Amino acid sequence: MPELKERIRADLTASMKSRDQVRTRTLRMVLTEIAKEEVSGEAARELGDAEVERLLAREVKRRREAAEAFRAAGRPEQADAELAEGDVLAAYLPAQLPDAELTALVAEAIAQSGASGPGAMGQVMKLLAPRIAGRADGGRVAAEVRRQLSGG
Questions:
Q1: In the 3-class helix/strand/coil scheme, how is 30-99 assigned residue by residue?
Q2: Is the pTM of this model over 0.90?
Q3: Quick one: average pLDDT of 129-149?
Q4: CATH number at residue 108
Q5: CA-to-CA distance for 106 and 149, rounded, in angstroms?
Q6: Which domain does 21 fall in, by range?
């Protein structure tokens, strides 16, 4: 069994014993999502740690977007609940890249690809994807690439 999935299961047991309702609910939900993902497709398979990380990142992003929607609708308690769940899930993801390191990686990728102008964004993103892999939100990376390609 992948290490990350096993850690989530162990943490679920611990959270149930400590009666941490938010953590228990969130970890149960993510284990359900992992199970759904494992049986979707042509044949059942076990997800590796990298795939579980991608799933977790997707769920964290969903929670953040839902929180924004709840805040806009005047429901701050629901927004706080979504953010709390997102925080639980984010703890299982690799540390996010600091802004300075992201800026340097983008500059390096632009220099390496010889890209210039906003039209070359795709080739820069293609170079960056494996280097960043889960350590920075895609929107944040795209914004930095766009900024540097437009001469900002």
A1: HHHHHHHHHHCCCCCCCCCHHHHHHHHHHHHHHHHHHHHHHHHCCCHHHHHHHHHHHHHHHCCCCCCCCH
A2: no
A3: 81
A4: 1.10.10.410
A5: 10
A6: 3-90
